[in-house]
Amino acid sequence: MWAGANLAFKLCPMLTQGAIEAFEQYAAPEHQQTFLPKMVSGEWTGTMNLTEPQAGSDLAQIRTRAVPDGKHYRLFGQKIFITYGEHDFTSNIVHMVLARIDGAPPGVRGISLFIVPKFLVNPDGSLGERNDVKCASIEHKLGIHASPTCVMMYGEQQGAIGYIVGEPNRGLEYMFVMMNAARLSVGMEGYALAERAFQQAADWARTRVQGKPPATAARIGRSASMGTGTSPAPIIGHPDVKRMLLTMKSYTEAMRATALYAAFQLDVGAQHADESVRTAAQARGDLLIPIVKGFSTEMGVEIASIGIQVHGGMGYIEETGAAQTLRDVRITTIYEGTTGIQSNDLIGRKVGRDRGAAMFALLDDMTRELEALPATAAASATTAALTGVADLRASTESLLQSLGSAPDRGDGGLGSYLRLCGIVIGGWLLAKSAAIAAERIAGQTTDSEFFSAKLRSAHFYAEQIMPMAGALARIVQSGAASVVETDAAHI
Ligand SMILES: Cc1cc2nc3c(=O)[nH]c(=O)nc-3n(C[C@H](O)[C@H](O)[C@H](O)COP(=O)(O)OP(=O)(O)OC[C@H]3O[C@@H](n4cnc5c(N)ncnc54)[C@H](O)[C@@H]3O)c2cc1C
Fold first, then answer.
1. Residue 368 domain-assigned?
2. What is the pLDDT of residues 437-477, one digit of tens each?
3. N or C: which end of the chain has fewer CB within 10 A?
4. How far is CA 241 from CA 217, 277, 430, 464, in A?
5. What CATH number has the domain bearing residue 197?
């Protein structure tokens, strides 16, 4: 809801939450006592400082230096694109900064994590001197204009005082705790803005009168008047507008279901009493994170763009707010690891490393659950999902085979594999929800409008979205050569 209401504002608590998780797990008890209560209460905010001009996707290139100085370190360097790096909403800002201790090994094995407060904290908890960290400038961006994206300078004078988190050289590992949570959260931003775009577009389409939609499409809900097929009526009656809205709605429902399923797995992974259940759930949650992040954000951008199309020219004009949704959601495929990086993570770490074990376990569960669904009004969604699961299984097998024999060849189909996963997992969850909806309708629920709408969007997804899984499977299984074999000089 926060991301849908105002993405720029939502980023501030999101990053604070990520920093809190890293503190809870790895920071020394005295630092937890000093910083955590104020961060949890929201009195102070947190940031994540990874990116440098030469170190974006490739964090091995980080150059910010940390020099030991008694009990703490002094940091020197520049960070760019730091979200909420500076502001005056709160009295202090706690920066989590990746830096290299002098003499540390090169590459990712020599990166440590530091706590660098904007204001140093006195032993009694009051704020002391201003630390040697400052915001050099604020970027001008395509969207999320209310979020200050800062260039941060550390140690322009005596060095910014920083406290190490955990052990030296394990910073990236700790940062991944924040990044995993942040990637799931950014995935949610994708569908939150898709939901916003859908609500804006649906409201617009219910009131904008243009043309004469066919009489059969006339039941439009809310208080709008009915079309007759002969007089002008709201555009929501036009089949093409309905198609656009159903595309937006069904994808958003699929993405939300997938993200909630991933979050559920992570909760089970953290809390279940049985260790083997915890391990399996954690592996499944880890597998799903790049899919939630990559797929929901890519689709968020596409859906926000469809939202503008539903508005017609007024979507391109700022007053409707549809354009802002597209500008805001555009960043979500880039920060917290671009879609390319999510694809690498999905294939290299999550599927490649365990030779598909977590993916095949998921596919087995999906098949078993789909086959057990009752033959109800939702049967079309079940059939389409089963076909998609078979496509994803064959593609996973093919990808693993090519990764084994020619690692490069996997790369050409990566984006398609991630998208295939997103479409099929979403289709499986929508088929399950459609079966529940059909059952409730048969049981004469009082909420039949809601369940009928669920059934319709699952039916649409089965008919109009799931067939794309077949095309994506073909790309994954045989489309890599045109990418891998093309010399960069020929582009
Ligand atoms: C508004 C905004 C807010 C941000 N907030 C923060 C923040 O709070 N903290 C922070 O530390 N950073 C932040 N960032 C930085 C952000 O995380 C990086 O921009 C992002 O990780 C990409 O790095 P880059 O911009 O250097 O792009 P590059 O790494 O140069 O990537 C350019 C293109 O190359 C592709 N590419 C690069 N390497 C590979 C690879 N190995 N395999 C396949 N494709 C690859 C990418 O996918 C991309 O398409 C923010 C950025 C923006 C714009």
1. yes
2. 999 998 887 788 999 999 999 999 999 999 999 999 999 99
3. C
4. 11, 45, 22, 14
5. 1.20.140.10
